[in-house]
Amino acid sequence: MRTYRGFTLVELLVVIAIIGVLIALLLPAVQQAREAARRMQCTNNLKQHGLGLHNFHDTYGRFPPGASNDRQPFGTGGTNNWGMSWLVYIMPQIELGNAYEAGNFGSGAGYNTTAITNAVGNGTGKTPIFDVYVCPSSALPDKTSLSAPYSMIPDYVGIAGAVNGFGGISGATEYTNTAYGTAATNGILYYNSQSKFGSITDGSSNTLMVSEVGDYVYNDATTRIDYRPGRQHGFAMGCKGSNNNTTVLPTSADGRVFNTVTVRYKVNPGKNQFFTTACDDGVCQNMGVNSPLRSPHAGGVLGLLGDGSVRFIAETINNTTLGNLAVRNDGNVLDPF
């Protein structure tokens, strides 16, 4: 009778070792391929935002305000209440029209969080997670706001401009609240803005309109925290004031602005810069008007320019170039980035 020889222990260990080496070689490639796909989806999200913003401009002759104090994008009611963010105003333009209509965003005055959230969320007390407002690479765990009623937290922000002094920027009209940071009006999507293509004198291809905040910042060397500008109240919150028809935030007991960023810090600061739990540096969970641009994509963030194109902005970009990129009308020549 013929006998068959099996694997020896040494041979088995060699085979296992070879398989382990192959897995070690292939796994990074698989992970990189997955991240490349996620980054491509993030790029597509920003392109959708660009289409929505451009379609809004085609309809109304101007871009939506980055944040307003009225449901109407250019209302004159003077509600002295909370209004909508740019993320709401482009919903009908990016196939979220049903959610927009359910929330009754286009009528009435002010921001009724409970009524809107229940309407959009079909009475569940929370809004759906709209994928177009979420970076697929983001590992931030919270997808809905901290305060009830619960609204989704976006990983993208409108660019309101850059603060005076950042990268040599000067002449910006600013609203400074020592408790909440500094909001400027020299970008495209600032509070109560009514920007048009004609007001982007630096050129739409040279001006940043939307970018990312889908990663952590650090309180200290070991403590990371989610300080996205929409974390407390979600994607729909704009700002508060007494007259939506002005281009500067009116004096108010509450000067917070949500879902826009005025550039004040470098891209992807990581552990190179720490932010306090107070809001005086403009970086906190209950607003974040100066929240640094950041993403889980290696080496930088994606940004939507005014012409609708999407570019990768390296974290090594110098402050001068980043400041010029955030401002629509500084007249400076933009260095390559």
TrEMBL record:
Keywords per UniProt: Membrane, Transmembrane, Transmembrane helix
Highest taxon of the lineage: Bacteria
Residue span, DUF1559 domain: 31-318
Alphabetized InterPro entries for the sequence: DUF1559, N_methyl_site, Pilin-like, Pre_pil_HX9DG_C
PROSITE patterns for the chain: PROKAR_NTER_METHYL (PS00409)
SUPFAM superfamilies named among the record's database cross-references: Pili subunits
Residue ranges of the TM segments: 12-30
Keyword Transmembrane: yes
NCBIfam families in the cross-refs: IV_pilin_GFxxxE, pre_pil_HX9DG
Protein name in UniProt: Prepilin-type cleavage/methylation domain-containing protein
